[in-house]
Structures are given as structure tokens and as C-alpha cells.
Design a protein that fits this description.
heterodimer; A: mainly alpha; two-stranded antiparallel ribbon; 5 helices; 2 strands; 61% helix; B: alpha/beta; 6-stranded mixed β-sheet; 3-stranded antiparallel β-sheet; 35% helix
Chain lengths: 120, 231
């Protein structure tokens, strides 16, 4: 796996985003075991403590849980993935709207453009 | 668990030239710390003091709670920036030499690392190019089960592909009870590896901290911070 990380922003956040994307795309399923901190750090070529921090943060966000001696797993509940999907779309929408607003587009214009694109 | 390395107000002067001024830092087990700074900023001096090769002018140096000496040298694996290997031996001979010298040396691991880095163990040390010699030194340093690995000017003579192999090797041999202290100019290659950084300017620490926290605080990469500090 060759991941290119942007060193200008915290790497543990990028690792979290990577895992979240895999959950949304179903590459990682509910209940599935994540690679060990060591394996993940080797795969991503980052410090193991950085991976550990990402796993801990995701546990705090209740997206994964750790079973002592066994590893870290994606939570079983499927609603969690649904919520992630929603968050991802809303995030993209927010960025799109903000960016277009900066160019001076009105909301009506933006809705129009979206409809045009979708009806093609 | 106690800190692997503690420096408190470490001072080192050569005649009247102050090479290190009031350097204070702490390295906990399982952490990888980078010492960054331009040539002449004191990085090698600092590492040599921790390795027990130079005496401080003042201040305190504790490696696993002990002052540098015979006992700490058994716990510390030192990778120097210049060649320190006996030239008349073959690589195979060097491995045996290290095996005799160091109790925690793993010859099988050393051979495995050499193979991974593409080095023929029958060759004589004198016949090696600079880059190959550095790969050899790295293999020897990592083949020890040390508590503290000191790596001076890590990776600098090695080509980009070998650098990636070297970093992978370091990660593969990562031991949560050991720590690494790395000095380097190759910040881009190495910054993802670092837990903590210390920026050394003319012998003084002008900035230090956790790499991720610094990224958040300064909103840039460690290399970006370096350029800002030293330009």
C-alpha cells in the first residue's frame, strides 16, 4: 500500500480519514479486524505511535474498539457507517458551497447547476 | 518506565567555542526523536556525548538512569556519520567481530538485513562504496537489541530506494522498549517516522515538541518549520 501523506497536517488525522473511507467503501466491514499497529505502521511507513493515536481517536469517536491482546476492530453497528457516509457527503457539500460562494455564486444558481448536471 | 535518555542543561565547549548550550531534553521508551539543524549546530556533538565518546563540559546526561560509560555502551547502539569499521575485514568478519563484542547482537538478523539491502557479505569493507558502507553500518546498528539507537546523519549517503528499505527496516525492528535518536538533513524522508523533534541552532534548542502537535500549531510540515526557522 503506497499512501502519500501531506506532512503539513497531522498524519494521525489522515490515517483516520483513510480508515473511514475504507469503512464507507465497504473495504472494511463492521466487526472486521484492523491491521495491528505495527503492521499498519510498516504498510504506511509511519511511526507506530502515530498509528496508535489514530486508533485511539477512532475509539473515542466510537468507530472502533480494542480487545486487549487481540487487536482493534471496526464496531459491529451498521448505523455507524451510514453516519460516516452522511458526514462525508455533508462535508463535501459544505466545501463546495463555501468555495462557490467565494466566487459569488448564489444558492439558486448552485442548485440549478446541480440539477443540470444530474439530469444529463 | 523511566526515560531512556535525559539531558539536563548539557553544555559542551571546545576551548572557548560553545558547541552545546543548556540542552535539556527527555526521550521516553518507544519514541523516535529527530535532532534537526544545519551543519555545525551541535547534532553530532550531542550524539557523541550520549554515546560516551565525548565528555560534557557541564550538565547532566543519563542513559537509562546512568551516566555514559561502559554500562551504557552495552545498552546503546551507535551509528556514526563516518566509517568506524576495521577496514581489513570482510563483511562476514565484521559480523563475527560485532557478535563477539556485543552480547545483544543478533548475527542472523544482521545477515538478513544485509541481504535485504543487497550487500554481499563476502566483500571487504575497503571495497565498498560510501553508500554501501552506510547500509552496512545501518544493518550492524539495527542488529543489536539496544535500548537506545543513536543514528547520526541517518540515510544521507544512501540512494532514495535504499532509503525506503532502510526506513522499513527501522519500522520492522521497532521495539516499544527501545528508543531512537536520529539526526538528519533528509527531513522529508524521515519526518513521518518521528514522534518528537528538537531544532538545534548554534548549540541551543530553539524549538522542540511532538511532531503532530507542531503540525497543528504551525500548520505546516516539520520541513516547513525547519525552513522557516533556519532561513
Amino acid at each position: 500500500m503506497i499512501e502519500v501523506f501531506d506532512e503539513n497536517i497531522p498524519i494521525y488525522i489522515q490515517i483516520m480519514d483513510l480508515i473511514k473511507k475504507k469503512m464507507i467503501s465497504k473495504e472494511l466491514l463492521p466487526g472486521e479486524k484492523l491491521p495491528s499497529v505495527r503492521d499498519m505502521s510498516k504498510q504506511l511507513e509511519v511511526n507506530p505511535n502515530t498509528v496508535q493515536r489514530a486508533y485511539l481517536e477512532m475509539e473515542r469517536e466510537m468507530l472502533v474498539y480494542t480487545k486487549r491482546g487481540q487487536g482493534t476492530f471496526i464496531v459491529e453497528e451498521p448505523q455507524v457507517v451510514l453516519k460516516l457516509r452522511q458526514e462525508m457527503v455533508l462535508d463535501r457539500v459544505a466545501n463546495f458551497v463555501r468555495e462557490m460562494e467565494a466566487f459569488g455564486f448564489s444558492h439558486d444558481e448552485l442548485l440549478n447547476f446541480i440539477e443540470r448536471y444530474l439530469s444529463k | 518506565m523511566e526515560a531512556i535518555l535525559k539531558l539536563h542543561n548539557l553544555n559542551k565547549s571546545y576551548a572557548s567555542f560553545p558547541a552545546l548550550k543548556n540542552v535539556t531534553l527527555e526521550l521516553k521508551p518507544g519514541r523516535i526523536m529527530g535532532i534537526l539543524g544545519p551543519n555545525g549546530s551541535g547534532k553530532t556533538t550531542l550524539i557523541k556525548i550520549v554515546a560516551g565518546l565525548l565528555r560534557p563540559s557541564g550538565g547532566e546526561v543519563l542513559v537509562c538512569g546512568m551516566a555514559p560509560g561502559v554500562q551504557t555502551k552495552a545498552l546503546v547502539s551507535y551509528l556514526p556519520d563516518v566509517n568506524h569499521l576495521p577496514n581489513w575485514l570482510t563483511i562476514h568478519g565484521i559480523i563475527q567481530y560485532f557478535n563477539t563484542f556485543y552480547e545483544d547482537f543478533d548475527p542472523d538478523l544482521a545477515f538478513a538485513l544485509l541481504e535485504r539491502l543487497g550487500i554481499d557479505q563476502r566483500r571487504k569493507v575497503t571495497a565498498l562504496s560510501k553508500g554501501t558502507r552506510e547500509k552496512l553500518q545501518l544493518s550492524l546498528a539495527l542488529a543489536r537489541k539496544a535500548r537506545l539507537y543513536l543514528m547520526d546523519e541517518l540515510l544521507e549517503g544512501i540512494d532514495p530506494i535504499a532509503r525506503t528499505v532502510a526506513i522499513d527496516t527501522i519500522l520492522e525492528n521497532y521495539n516499544p522498549e527501545g528508543s531512537l535518536l536520529i539526526s538528519t538533513h533528509l527531513i522529508t524522508d524521515v519526518e513521518k517516522l518521528l514522534d518528537e523533534v528538537v531544532f538545534l541552532k548554534e548549540g541551543e534548542i530553539i524549538l522542540s515538541g511532538n511532531t503532530e502537535d507542531l503540525r497543528v500549531e504551525k500548520k505546516r510540515s516539520i520541513e516547513g518549520i525547519y525552513k522557516e526557522i533556519f532561513s
